[in-house]
Amino acid sequence: MGGVEYLPRTMLGNILLGGRVASLRSVTFAIIIALFLSAPVYSSDHATSGGKSIGRLEEKLEILKCLQADSDKKLAMLSEKLEGQAKISEELFKQAKEEVKKTDWFNLYVNIALAVLTGFVVIVALFQEVIARKWKKTKLGMEIKLRSPDSVMIVSSVVAPQSGTVHEIRLLYIRIKVVHEKGVAGESVEIMPLRFWSVTDGNAEPIDSFLPISLHWSYFPHDEFGTIRVPAGSFRYCDLGYFERRPDGKASLTIDTVFRSNPVGAGIIPNVFGPGEYQFELELTGDNVKATKGRWKIKFDAWIDDEGRMLESISIEKMRSILAR
Prior knowledge:
Blueprint: H1 10-18, H2 24-37, H3 47-126, H4 128-135, E1 139-144, E2 151-159, E3 166-182, E4 186-200, E5 203-206, E6 228-230, E7 235-245, E8 251-255, E9 272-273, E10 276-286, E11 289-300, H5 307-313, E12 315-318
Antiparallel strand pairs: 1-3, 2-3, 3-7, 4-5, 4-6, 4-10, 7-8, 8-9, 10-11, 11-12
């Protein structure tokens, strides 16, 4: 054929269509082949102008080589970016897993706390009265002072059992002052002497014959329970007992319990004590009162008709702690 002939341009389309699944490098190579094949072909009659066409083709090949090199560079950069993004994604995934674990532990703690709180609320609802009584315990204090009006001497009339003769005797009452210290009014309050000890040369020996019976409240009628109400912010007196003159001129102490004890072995009256030194323990209780114990030591000897001098002859002192029984 004479003149310039061109290959069918549909070849480029076929190459590109066949490269749907090819990489960018394969596409670039296909473009180079297509451009090369589409270059004009000269017959022998045009040998002179063929050299120029070959020169232009070489220029195009150089350009294509530069394009391919640039494409390779961009592909390398893109690959690096993708690898970096993959590392970042992997790190974010790890962090997300850690956050999920933390969230799971947090939810576990929250559920446990809610369960404990729910159980506490249920317990409070079931035992609210018991809890209220415990937390609203009234606090009362006990003190004994050898001065009026805590301790007073009175004149009492006594009828002789056989003759019926009435005669007067002097009694020195020692009282316990019960003071309200905290909380609401104390209900059904009572004081009980728990134990007595006889002290000889500093050694305290328990008196086994003593009977612990509730004490009588001052200025109130005797009752079988020996309880009373102590108003908030106020006080009440309770009789510890009274001193009286014995036939030998000595003093004796009778503990003023709500019941009079009958004589026991050898004619001993459990709540009556002769001259000497003793220790005794008192316990104060009540329906809503915090139980309180105290221990005192007392010493007395002769009876004196004068109140002031009699009080001076008596020694009574609260001990610092409750000794072991």
